[in-house]
């Protein structure tokens, strides 16, 4: 499959992980990464994030973004919500004209019974990599699985941002 990364501008502003950055600058960079080629959505989400921060919200960035980006640039599902996960990932992929081959019929109970959320995350991760994207998961402890997708070419930037923002992020293929 061809890599379509040339279809999108590189909006990500490189930064030096050793240099202190304002949290808002880092959050803006993260939103650009999870909204490749869609700066308008990133800006809307950034404004909502700023409202939460101004309201005194004091949680790690993924938790602050959870509802803001849900079903547009991210997902969050309960630990056993395989149907919700496949619907959310399908919605994320559709933003970029992609469809996920789940290897079976999502409406078939037997197919869904054979999978759990981590196995479906891994499958989606590998399918999206074929098209130049990476599906990421952030540590939601036992509350569920949360994450987003970004262009594969931005993997290093995503890892660096997660490190600077001090939250655990890993490819969805390692969610289990």
Write a compact overview of the structure shown:
45% of the residues lie in helices and 11% in strands. The chain is α+β, with helices and mostly antiparallel strands and 176 residues long.
Structure description:
With 176 residues, this protein is of the alpha+beta class. The protein is 45% helix and 11% strand. It has helices at 23-34, 39-54, 61-69, 82-94, 109-113, 117-129, 155-165; strands at 74-77, 133-138, 145-151, 169-171. Residues 1-12 have low confidence and may be disordered.
Radius of gyration: 16 Å
- Give the overall pLDDT as a whole number: 87
Shape: globular
How much strand?
A: 5-15%
Query: Could you list the spans in which at least 5 consecutive residues all have pLDDT below 50?
Result: 1-12
Strand order of the largest sheet: 1-3-2-4
Q: Could you give the order of the helices and strands?
A: HHHEHHHEEHE
User: Given the structure, what is the number of helices?
Assistant: 7
- End-to-end Cα distance, whole Å, is 27 Å
* Biggest sheet character: 4 strands, antiparallel
> Would you count the extended β strands for me?
4
Q: In which range does the helix fraction lie?
A: 40-55%
Structural class category: alpha+beta
Helix and strand arrangement:
Elements (H helix, E strand, L loop, with lengths): L22 H12 L4 H16 L6 H9 L4 E4 L4 H13 L14 H5 L3 H13 L3 E6 L6 E7 L3 H11 L3 E3 L5
Antiparallel strand pairs: 1-3, 2-3, 2-4
Helix pairs in contact: 1-2, 1-7, 2-3, 4-6
């Amino acid at each position: 499959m061809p890599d379509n990364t040339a279809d999108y501008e590189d909006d990500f502003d490189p930064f030096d992980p050793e240099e202190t950055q304002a949290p808002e600058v880092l959050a803006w960079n993260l939103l650009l990464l999870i909204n490749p080629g869609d700066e308008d959505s990133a800006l809307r989400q950034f404004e909502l994030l700023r409202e939460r921060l101004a309201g005194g919200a004091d949680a790690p960035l993924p938790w602050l973004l959870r509802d803001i980006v849900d079903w547009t640039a991210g997902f969050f599902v309960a630990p056993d919500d395989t149907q919700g996960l496949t619907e959310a990932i399908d919605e994320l992929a559709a933003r970029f004209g992609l469809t996920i081959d789940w290897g079976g019929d999502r409406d078939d109970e037997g197919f869904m019974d054979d999978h759990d959320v981590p196995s479906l995350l891994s499958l989606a991760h590998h399918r999206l990599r074929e098209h130049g994207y990476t599906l990421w998961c952030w540590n939601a402890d036992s509350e569920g699985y949360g994450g987003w997708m970004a262009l594969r070419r931005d993997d290093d930037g995503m890892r660096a941002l997660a490190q600077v923002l001090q939250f655990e992020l890993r490819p969805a293929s390692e969610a289990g």
